[in-house]
UniProtKB/TrEMBL annotation, chain A:
Residues 122-209 form the Acyl-CoA oxidase/dehydrogenase middle domain. SUPFAM superfamilies: Acyl-CoA dehydrogenase C-terminal domain-like (SSF47203), Acyl-CoA dehydrogenase NM domain-like (SSF56645). It comes from the Bacteria. This is Pimeloyl-CoA dehydrogenase small subunit. Keywords: FAD, Flavoprotein, Oxidoreductase.
TrEMBL record, chain B:
PANTHER family: ACYL-COA DEHYDROGENASE (PTHR43292), ACYL-COA DEHYDROGENASE FADE29 (PTHR43292:SF3). This is Acyl-CoA dehydrogenase. Residues 6-123 form the Acyl-CoA dehydrogenase/oxidase N-terminal domain. It comes from the Bacteria. Transmembrane segments: none annotated. Residues 127-221 form the Acyl-CoA oxidase/dehydrogenase middle domain. It comes from Bradyrhizobium retamae. Keywords: FAD, Flavoprotein, Oxidoreductase. The lineage of its organism: Bacteria, Pseudomonadati, Pseudomonadota, Alphaproteobacteria, Hyphomicrobiales. Residues 233-395 form the Acyl-CoA dehydrogenase/oxidase C-terminal domain. Belongs to the acyl-CoA dehydrogenase family.
Amino acid sequence: MDLNLSDEQRLLRESADRFVNETYTADHRRTIANDPIGFSMDIWKQFADLGWLALPIPEAHGGLGGGAIEIGILMEAFGRGLVSEPYLSTVVIGTSLISECGTEMQKQALLPKVADGSLILAFAHSERQARYDLVKVATTAKRTPDGWRIDGQKTTVLDGSAAAQIVVSARIDDGKIGLFMVPQGAAGLTSHDFPRLGSGRACNLELRDVQLPAEALLGDGSDALTAIEHAVDRAVAALGAEAVGIMQTLLDQTLEHTKFRKQFGRPLSANQVIRHRLADMAMQCDEARSMALRAALMADAEPVARSRAASGAKAKIGKCARFVAEQSVQLHGAMGVTEELDIGSYFKRLLAFEMLFGGSAHHYRRHAALGGRAVEA
Amino acid sequence: MDLTFSAEERAFEQEVRDFIAANLTPEMKRATALTPSVFSDPDIGMAWQRALHKKGWGAPGWPVEYGGPDWTPAQRWIFESECARAGVPNVNVMGVKMVGPVIIGFGSPEQKNFYLPRILSGEDYWCQGYSEPGSGSDLASLKTRAARDGDDYIINGTKIWTTHAHHANRMFALVRTNETERQQDGISFLLIDMKTPGITTRPILTIGGDHEVNQVFFDDVRVPVANRVGEEGKGWTYGKYLLEFERGSGIASAKLRDALKTISELAESDATGRAIGDPDIAVRMSEIEVDIDALEMTELRVLSALQTGQNPGAVSSLLKLRVSEIRQAVTRLGVDVIGNDGLYVEPMRPLYRLNEAPGIPEELLPVVPEYLNGRAYTIFGGSSEIQRDIVAKMVLGL
């Protein structure tokens, strides 16, 4: 047992921290907020040069063969900088789905392009009626003489407008869930793009009679649900690490503010109620850090243990995040409720974290159900 | 004891319902539902205020000689409850509920004659100049200076969190007229015409994306001494009198119930994939409903005490704490009810006059902004930390 970073991991953290500090200034965030794709292609190329896009891809497919710990190190730094590049969509989720479902030919065709930065991916899975239940897919894929016909609606597709290829889940005639590579601009695909809470963009998709060739299906047609669950667990572990970076930033800034701001002739931090609040925030940041690490360490464990670790982390970090975020705003006073400070941006990003892939209540239920407790997941 | 209203009170309830049915337009109702800030914009709010004024209900809390309707506390309760249930516009309270009572209590006859009718009719639109960048919870440390120069004061300084300063033509402000040993003794209460040269207003956007508050700057602004309410140096007393209104203004449970009903309807609808099927959502909804029941009973107990002329005691801090916490719980539940769709950001305002149809069901749009903006409920009008200090001191005698 050793939970210390290796030398390589420490170097990765240092370079990620340095890059984020230098690149993601408040000015950069303001520029990006008005950008039509919501992030910078130049920075994405730099991610590729730094090897970050190749991190989880197997060496055989042009990658570095890294794991969830390395991803977590990057994501924590991304959280501190409120990074809006489509790392989660492309590298964490997209790569995971292709690696697990794709045929050898598909992996060879797609993964090296992810690694070199020339292919951005999105994952279109959630539907309004599903409410985070990964099994509930109403979008259909019907076999045609030439391949497939896809019909349905997808909500909150992260980075869906920037992606050259969108991985769309759909229910095949035989009841199994399939994953289909849908190119941007496919006939019958309409997209409603919008700025997303906490920076970046997303879109709602409508697929009406979208015709795809037979090879658009990832893999051989076996049910993709287990691959989706694994990809989402990996995403949850990565997002947990990102949330830790955000929470730590909020705590640091709130600590500074309460030491500096004077009311009634003394700093806010001289009041016991404030000191205790800050102590609770610090405790919750630390618990969140432990849970994010745990989810990362178990990201490739057997499915039940892995999913329980992911759900436990999502639930617990969500609770901690809510407390830390809300108290950071509270202790900044009215300024915290405005766009004048960064606090609000970090607050919104944590709220977005809670919404993505289900909130704490959903994940406590999943955790209980996977543990054999009689509840409905 | 009896929880039911009398026959006269029932008849009054029907009169209020009839009035609302005749005057609340569908446009007003929709605009109110799609407004994620505290108060309706003046075009909506003042239209409602004019309708109330026409009926003689423009200022429910005022004495009858100034145009009040002479209602019993129970009638005020019924009126506020029916208005909340129907979803009427949230009229900016700065005029009728805040500066009005101060002018009635402490103003000169000239001030009463001039200002009160203009508040009632909606001709004047008021904002409040209290907080300053360095003076939030510690309001008495305010620094905006009013120096006496003949028949004028010359004002220099800045006010912040000024709700609707960009709409208002008048401001009531606390300013420092004297450097005294006790900070509170050097403060005066002034009525300021917002068109006076030297006043500039800077918008402050909230994290929900709304422009409701501002910072206002005073650069050698001349205000006639005649615009001072009451005595010089007594402004703190008048200002505190008014803050009591801001903290406790009495009847919040009906509005909270209406807000919860909105979330409940969303949770029942396909727009949220019937979120109510999630047992966690259902249980939290009941938890909040019970909290509102408790709040409502407290409000009714206060009302009963008032009706028999008793002093309800220092409950306004207790009520402010609970109201703000319950409101935040409702907005938080809303966020969880709409799930993923909360990631959809609509930057344009007002939400009821968008150029293009939004990409999610319209009724979901205000939910996240209301949660975000709602973080201010435990901050403005004295933060929850300050309210608990007041409870400890004033209620428990610690």
